[in-house]
Amino acid sequence: MNWIFSIKDMENAISFYDENGFVGFSDAIERKDVTILKDAFDDAVSKGDLDPAKLVDGNDAIFLHPIFEKYSRDERMVSLSKNIFRNENGVQLQHAKLINKPKQKGEGLIEWHQDYPFFPHTNLDLIAVGIHFDDENEDSGPMCVVPGSHKWGFLSHCEDNKFAYRCTDKKMKIENAMAMTCPAGTVTIHHCLVLHQSAPKRNERLRRFLVYQYRTCDNVQLSGVIWNCTGNEISPTKGQIGTVRFMDGNIVENRGMGGRLYDKFTKLTSDK
Questions:
Q1: Total Cβ atoms within 10 A of residue 135
Q2: pLDDT tens, 183-194?
Q3: 3-state secondary structure of 91
Q4: What is the pLDDT of residues 68-78, one digit of tens each?
Q5: 132 CB contacts (<8 Å, ≥6 apart)?
Q6: What pLDDT digit, counting tens, does each position of 91-144 carry?
Q7: Beta strand 226-227 pairing with 269-270
Q8: CATH number among 3.40.50.150, 2.60.40.180, 2.60.120.620, 1.10.8.50, domain 4-151+177-262
Q9: Is the Cβ–Cβ distance between 107 and 76 less than 8 Å?
C-alpha cells in the first residue's frame, strides 16, 4: 500500500487519509529540519531536560527544548492540519510527546489503542502529526495501523470496569495491520480513532518520533488528563467568541479562553 505522498499531491493524500485514517508525507519538511530536531534532542539530553532512557518523555514535549515548541507552530505543520481538518479556523495543541525507543532489543512496546479514549473531545477533529527523526524499518518497532479502523467507531479500552490503557474490544481485528516503515524526515498523520500500536524493537538503532496532537479550536476536551501545553494556540482563532462543536453538528457558545478547558486550580493538569 502506497501511503506516503508529496505535499504537491494533497488532494489524493486527503482522499487516502479519509479512507484509511492515516497518511504520510515525504517532503513536508527538509533534511535540514531533521538535523535541527536531532540537535535539539541531543541538547536537551546534555542539559538533563530529556531522559533518553524513557520511552515517552513527557506529554509536554514543547517544554523540553525551544525547538520542539517552535516546530509545533511551524506553518508547514499548521497547513497540513488545516488541510486534513478542512478547516481554516484556528488550530490548538492538545499535547506533544517525544517517543524515544530504548536501544535495547525487545523494548518499546505500545499496545493497540485508539487515541480518543485517552482524552475524549466534543468532536473528532483531533489528529496526531508525527515527525520521524530516524530511518525506520520492520526491526525498528515502527507504528503499525489497521487501515480503515477509524470507521469502526469507539472501541472499548476497559477491563473489569477499569481503563486498561489498551484496546480490549472484541471487535478489534488486526489481521490487516501494516507497519508504517519510513525514512527520516517523513511526517505522518493519523486519526484519533484509527487503531494503532508500536511493536518492540528488534535492533539497537535509535527510533525517535515527535508527536503533536492537534485539534480544531471548537473541539473541547471533555475528560482525561490535560497538560501544561493543552490548549496552546497554534494558529489564531477567527472571531472572539469561543464556540464548542459537537459530533451531531450542534454548536454552543462558550465563555472565555477561546472555549478552551481552563484548569484554574491546577487540579487536572499533569506533569507526568
A1: 15
A2: 999 999 999 999
A3: strand
A4: 999 999 999 99
A5: 182, 183, 184, 185, 186, 187, 188, 208, 209
A6: 999 999 999 988 888 888 999 999 999 999 999 999 999 999 999 999 999 999
A7: parallel
A8: 2.60.120.620
A9: no
Q: Which three cell numbers stand for residue 131?
A: 515527525
Q: Which residue has the cell 494503532?
A: 196
Q: What percent of the chain has pLDDT over 90?
A: 75
Name the nearest CA neighbour of 264 among 220, 272, 256.
256
Return the domain boundaries, the chain: 4-151+177-262
C-beta pairs of 53-58 under 8 Å, 24+ apart in sequence: 53/102, 54/100, 55/99, 55/100, 55/101, 55/102, 55/107, 55/108, 55/110, 56/97, 56/98, 56/99, 56/100, 57/97, 57/98, 57/100, 58/97, 58/98, 58/271
Q: Hunting for cell 524526515 — which residue is that?
A: 185
Report whether 143 contacts 198 (CB < 8 A).
yes
